[in-house]
C-alpha cells in the first residue's frame, strides 16, 4: 500500500526524522545486540532514514531495505547518496534498496538475522501474511524489532482522515498471530494505541 500525500509529507520531513532517531529507534533497539557481520532486512524503508539509523546502530555486513512505492525507493537512494549531517559517517555501501511487496517478499527462507519495521503493519491489508513472510525469511533465533500503531489510535475522525489505516490492528490480534507463527516476545513497551517490540523466531 502506498502512502497518501499527507502521510508522505509527514514521514518525509526533518521533524519525523528527528523523532525516528531520538525517540523511536532507541526504544525499538533497546537491549538488542546483533553479532558483527549480521544480515538484516527493513520492511517498508520509506525515504531511507530507517536504513541509515539501523546501519549506524549495528555492525552489519548487509542491510536489505525495500518499499512497495518506487518513488520512496528513489528518495531513499538519493538520501543514501547524499546523507544528512547526522549520518555523514554512516557507511551505506552495504545497503541494498529495492521495490518489493511485504506480503510476497522475494527472499529465501532463513535468510536474515533481524528484521525491522517502523510502523508498517497497519498500512497492509493482509498484515498477517506480512508477519508470516517476516517469520519465513528470518533465521531461527532471528529478531523482529518493530513499532506498530493499534486501532484505538484511529478513533478520531481527523486522525483517520489524515493518516488512513488500511488495517485496524488490536494488540491481542497481533500477539495471537505472532504466537501462532512461532514468535516469542522478548521486549514489549506499549499501550492500547501502539507498541514497540522485539520478538524472536523460535
Characterization of the model:
- The protein is an alpha/beta fold and 202 residues long.
- The protein has one domain: Rossmann fold (3-Layer(aba) Sandwich), CATH 3.40.50.150.
- It is 35% helix and 27% strand.
- It has seven helices and seven strands, in the order ααβαβαββαβααββ.
- A seven-stranded mixed sheet has the order 3-2-1-4-5-7-6, sandwiched between helices.
- Strand 1 (38-43), helix 3 (49-57) and strand 2 form a beta-alpha-beta unit.
- Helix 2 (14-28) packs parallel to helix 3 (49-57) and helix 5 packs parallel to helix 7 (171-181).
- It is globular.
- The model has no long low-confidence stretch (mean pLDDT 94).
